[in-house]
Each structure stands twice: as C-alpha cells, then as structure tokens.
Amino acid sequence: MEVVIANYGSFLGKSSERLVVKEGKKVVAEVPFPDIEQVNILTNGASLSTDVIRECTERGIQINFLSSSGRPYAKLTSPNLTATVITRREQIFAYRDERGVTLAKAFIEGKIKNQVNVLKYFAKYRKTADPALFGQILDMIKAVEEHLAELSKITGPAIDEVRGQLLSVEGRAANLYWQAIKALTAGKVEFGGREHRGAADPVNSALNYGYGILYSRVWGALLLAGLEPFAGFLHVDRPGKPSLVLDLVEEFRQQVVDRSILAMVGKGAEIEVDDGKLTDASRRELARRILERLEAPERLEGKKVPLTAIIQRQCRRVANFVRGEGRYKPFVGGW
C-alpha cells in the first residue's frame, strides 16, 4: 500500500514492526512495514524519526517528498539500489548509437497511442449523449493517429541527429490532443489549453500536481531497475533535470494522470485553487485518485497487471534493451 502524509505537523515514528503516524499526541494510523510500498509526504512541517528512515531503506520502501505543486524535491532510498553499474554503463553508451533513437521513438509512440486511447475512452460516453462532440473528437483522434506514420519514418545513427524531428511530431500530436481535451471539458471547467510551470487554473494545476506524483513513482522504478534517472534520450541533458524520468513518464501521463483528472471533471468534482495553488483538500483528493489509479489493473501480455507493476516492468525492459537482452515495446493502455 501507499502511505500518504498530507496534514501539516504529522510525525512518523516506529513501533515494533509498524509505521506510526501521529498528529499532535493522537495516533491517526498504524501500518505494518511489510505492507508498505512507498511513503509520500505531501505537506510541509512533517517530521520523521531516524528509526523510520532506517526501517524503510532496509526494506526497500522509498520515501518521497513533494512540494505543494506536486514536484518531487527529495527521495530517501537505499544507496544499494544502484550498486551495480553494467546497466548504467550501457545506458550511457546507448546515447551515442541507434539504441537511443529506438527508445526515444518508442516513448513517443507510447505517448501518442495512449493519447488516442484516452480520447477514445471519454469519447465513447458522448456517442449518444452528444453526437456532435463525439464526431469532433473522432476527427481529432484520426489527426493524432496520422503522426504515428510520420514517426515510423524517422531514422538516424544517434539521438542528437533526430531529436528535433521527433519533438516536432510529438509536439504537433500533443497540440491536437489538448484541443480535444479542451472540447471534452467545455462547459464543465475553464481550460484554455495546456500550461506547465506557473499555471494557476484548476485543470493545469491538477495536471502538474498529478505528474509530480507520477515522476516520483517512475523515478523510484528506474532506480530499482539499475538505471540512471538523469541520463535520458528524448529530453536533453541539463544539470538537475531527470531526463530519463521525463522520457519514460511520457508513456504513462495519459493513462494515470489525465484520465484521473478528466474523470473528476466529468463527474462534477470541484478542483479548488486558492491564490494560484491547489487547496490542501484538492491535493489530498488528487493524490488519492492518482494512487488508486496506479493500483488499477491494465491488460499486459494477456494478463491484468496493476499499473504500478507495469511501470516497474517497463523500466526493467529499458534496462534489458540497453544491455542487448531484448527489445523495447511501449506500454499502451486500453480504452
């Protein structure tokens, strides 16, 4: 299970084999450590004992710290997770050959196909209720799908040679996707289009916050797979920029975060913003929904597998691919 700490002043301590959460002198939760997968601290002013840190790191439980905007600013984990170097050596070498191009194309392919499937998922409920909107979304879906053919034709000896072409395809497909999202949310919430940092409207604030939670999950999965989070392919290198995290997140944004938030909007749930930031109540509700979605099953190779396990599997597939031990196929969720 995921432990979420969202209330100011919370304290995390250890009692026997249990994580104990207190607010003031009151115990509000006790969770056995063997049942915990990750601990997510979403508030300022929380504190935790060194006993908790040691117990979590020894058990492989990662502790994530997220800002009020959802950006991960710290992660506590065992250094032994990155104790082997063969995978990371090959990951660095892959940047200079066709392996980097193959991975970057796969990440974009997964992103576009998941954009299409999320649009199909929400469009199907409009087929009878709003035929005009249904037809409009279908036209946009066809336009997004056309970019897959363009993507397949791009080849090159190394990622630096083709990154511009890849980002052009990705950007044009994304522009169409967000136009469709705008049409789907019209009349329910104000959404003028996708904005990144500094966004103050409810939908963009929720998206940015949700992506932050997803970044933490992907980051942790990459570490468990023995990969270097800062050495990506599609996203350019920059000090402090976890490029590989941003690369792999592209496959999962739509199915994990976009779908959760669109469902909230569609059901009339209010996303509250105060002074340009999500309220505590909205952050807690978003975290709950996104973590719940991460545990939801998706079909993979004929089996129903939780999304969180699929993320870990995809990270291992990246590691296998750079070591020359298999091919990489992007994850595509259903609709």
Describe this structure in words.
This protein has helices at residues 50-58, 86-94, 98-123, 131-152, 159-185, 202-224, 243-249, 253-266, 280-294, 307-322, and strands spanning 2-5, 10-15, 18-23, 26-32, 38-41, 47-48, 62-66, 72-76, 273-274, 277-278, 297-300, 303-306. The chain is α/β, with parallel strands linked by helices. It has two domains: 2-66, Ribosomal Protein L15, Chain: K, domain 2; 86-322, CRISPR-associated endonuclease Cas1, C-terminal domain (Four Helix Bundle (Hemerythrin (Met), subunit A)). Strands 1-5-7-8 form a four-stranded mixed beta sheet, sandwiched between helices. Strands 4-3-2-6 form a four-stranded mixed beta sheet. The longest helix has 27 residues, at 159-185. It is globular.
In short:
By secondary structure, the chain is an alpha/beta fold. It is built from ten helices and twelve strands.
Largest sheet: 4 strands, mixed
Superfamily at the CATH H level of the largest domain? Answer: CRISPR-associated endonuclease Cas1, C-terminal domain
- CATH domain class of the largest domain: Mainly Alpha
The percentage helix is: 40-55%
The global form is globular
Tally of separate domains: 2
Number of helices: 10
Secondary-structure blueprint of this entry?
Layout: E1 2-5, E2 10-15, E3 18-23, E4 26-32, E5 38-41, E6 47-48, H1 50-58, E7 62-66, E8 72-76, H2 86-94, H3 98-123, H4 131-152, H5 159-185, H6 202-224, H7 243-249, H8 253-266, E9 273-274, E10 277-278, H9 280-294, E11 297-300, E12 303-306, H10 307-322
Parallel strand pairs: 1-5, 2-6, 5-7
Antiparallel strand pairs: 2-3, 3-4, 7-8, 9-10, 11-12
